[in-house]
Amino acid sequence: MSAPAAIVSGDTIESVLRQPAPELSERRILLGHALDLTRIQLITASERVLTVAEAERVADLFARRIAGEPIAYLVGVREFYGLRFDVTPAVLIPRPDTELLVELAIDRLPRQGRVLDMGTGSGAIAVALGHSRRDASVSAIDLSDAALQVARRNAAHHAVQVQLLRSDWYAALTDQRFEMIVANPPYIVDGDHHLSEGDLRFEPIDALTDHADGLSALRQIISGAPAFLEAHGWLLMEHGYDQASAVRGLLEAGHFAEVQSWQDLSGIERVSGGKRPLDA
Questions:
Q1: Which of 184, 229, 265, 277 could form a disulfide with 233 if both were Cys (CB 3.0 to 4.6 A apart)?
Q2: For the whole model, what pTM was predicted?
Q3: How far apart (Å, rounded) are the C-alpha atoms in residues 7 and 228?
Q4: Which InterPro entries match (predicted)?
Q5: Does domain 94-275 have CATH number 3.40.50.150?
Q6: Which helix (DSSP H) or strand (DSSP E) does residue 243 occupy?
C-alpha cells in the first residue's frame, strides 16, 4: 500500500479523498470518523477546508491504516449481526463468519432458555443473542477484565441484560445450569503464519491461539460442558476451517448426541456441536 501525500490544513475533503492510499472506501470511513461526518455529509461538504487539528487527525489515521492497523480499532466500532459494537485492541474484531454461531444458537435455544457465552470478548455473541431473544437469560465469561469492560458497554448500549463474570473457562461457575453453551475460543495453532499477517497482528494473541495445537481450549470446553448443561442442552463452538473433523471426534469421544458441523456462507465447516451426553 503506497503512502499518501502530506495532509495539511487548507486541504479540502475532496482533495483528501483523492489521496492514493488507503483504499477509497477506507479513506471515506476514516475521514468521516475524524471529522464526525456521514458519507453524505462528506459529499455535500466536499469543499470544506480542514483545520490544523483535523489535518493532523486524518494524517495519523491514514498512516496507521497504511501500517496495517485494522479499521475497526481505528474507528472503535464494528457491525455484527446488524448491531454496532464498540471494539478495542483488548478484544477480537467480530467477524461475519461468527454470525453462523449466533443463528444456530437462536434456532436451538428453547423459550426462556439460559445460554452461556464462553470467552465473550466484546460481547458480540452474547449481546446479539440477547437482542434477538429477549426471552433468554444470557451469561458470559471472559478471563480479561479489559474485555469484560468492553462487553459491559456493548450490552448497555443495546439494552441487553447479560450476566458478566470473570472466569478461566468454567473455573468461577458453581451450580449454574444452561440450556446452551456457545464459544468462539482461541483455535489457531501456535506458530501459524496467519498470526503475523493482516489484522491478526494487532489483535490480542491469547484470544487467537491456545499456544498449542489449536484444540486445547476446545477440549476444555467440551470436557467441562456436561456438568453445566441441562438435559438435551446444546454445546456449539466455532473453530478453524480445517478443524471440524477433529472437533466432532472430541464431541463423539465425550458421548455427545447429534454431533454435527455446519457450513458458513463460504461452504467451510465453521461451527460444530452436539447435545449433552445422556449419561452425564
A1: 229
A2: 0.94
A3: 56
A4: DNA_methylase_N6_adenine_CS, HemK-like, N5-glutamine_MTase, PrmC_N, RF_methyltr_PrmC, SAM-dependent_MTases_sf, Small_mtfrase_dom
A5: yes
A6: none
Residue 43 Ramachandran class (φ > 0 left, ψ -120 to 50 alpha, else beta): alpha
List the alpha helices (DSSP H) in 118-215: 124-132, 145-157, 205-208
Residue 122 is labelled as binding a ligand: yes
* Contact predicate 231/179, CB 8 Å: no
Is 121 annotated in some ligand binding site?
yes
CA atoms of 183 and 125, how far apart (whole Å): 9
pLDDT, tens only, 93-130? 999 999 999 999 999 999 999 999 999 999 999 999 99
Amino acid identity, position 149: Q
Q: Is the pLDDT of residue 225 over 60?
A: yes
Strands laid side by side in the 269-275 sheet: 162-166, 137-142, 114-118, 178-183, 229-238, 269-275, 257-263
Task: Check whether 139 is labelled as a binding-site residue.
Answer: no
Whether 73 has a binding-site annotation, put simply, is: no
- Annotated binding residue at 186? yes
Helix, strand or coil for residue 111?
coil
204 is known to lie in a ligand binding site: no
* 22 annotated as a binding-site residue: no
Query: And the C-alpha cell for 168?
Result: 478461566
Domain spans of the chain, in order of start: 13-67, 94-275
123 is in an annotated binding site: yes
